[in-house]
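WARN no homologs supplied; continuing
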Amino acid sequence: MLKHADLPPTIPLFPLPGALLLPRTRLPLHLFEPRYLAMLDDALKTPHRLIGMIQSRDIPGSKETRLHSIGCAGRVTQFSETEDGRYMITMAGISRFRIQREVSGFTPYMRADVSWDGF
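OK structure emitted
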């Protein structure tokens, strides 16, 4: 079991409407978009194999959406590649997190500095 002190300060984010991951639960996912395939490849290269699941929210009176401030990090515990390059994965919920700030960079997917405090 990971302790909060062992969790990384920056994680990839996977905003997926309607998909809810909670600590100590499992979530099966089917990844096929190139940016999320890149996210998975990068996550599998780390010792923690964490991806932050988070919900988006609509901004009233606008077509814009933003991320909620709290999500749940999951550890990739199983994965298999299909013949056409997609992945079937299972994530195990590790801990909730609070976004401190989104991190810009050279990845096609979102990343954020997060705080594990309070969870």
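Residues 20-115 form a domain with the Archaeosine Trna-guanine Transglycosylase; Chain: A, domain 4 fold (CATH 2.30.130.40).
OK
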